[in-house]
Amino acid sequence: MNKHNHSDLSSGDGCTQITSVGSSYTARPNISVWFETGTNTPINPSLTPNVFELAQNYPNPFNPVTKINFQVPKQELVTLRVYDMLGREVALLVNEVKSPGYYTVDFNASNFASGIYTYRMTAGSFDKTMRMVIIK
Prior knowledge:
Strand order of the largest sheet: 3-8-5-4
Shape: globular
Number of strands: 10
CATH class of the largest domain: Mainly Beta
Mean pLDDT: 80
CATH topology of the largest domain: Immunoglobulin-like
Strand content: over 45%
Low-confidence stretches: 1-7, 16-20, 23-39
Order of helices and strands: EEEEEEEEEE
Structural class: mainly beta
Distance between the termini: 34 Å
CATH architecture of the largest domain: Sandwich
């Protein structure tokens, strides 16, 4: 969702007015701010990545919630699973066909013990595993 719009000055030094309802004028640089609207949603659907990627979760270590970002360059069945250190699957975060785009998933580990876990994304021939740490 584009939360705030500004009308540009011809000089490029800021804005002439804030177009959001109820706002008073303040000189600001030219910006567009994107807000995530929930878990497992595209971050910015107007951009298309070139490659599959799974990013390091943030924050890490965490308690109890962390974010996992990933990107999909073409429509593909994507799975994102969490495993304990014995290799047992403890959570299935994503298991669906995704359109091209950038995504984020919230992982709530409030019911998990402290320790090291891995998360693995598979999509077509893409397969990547990352490590995360829960501290309580």
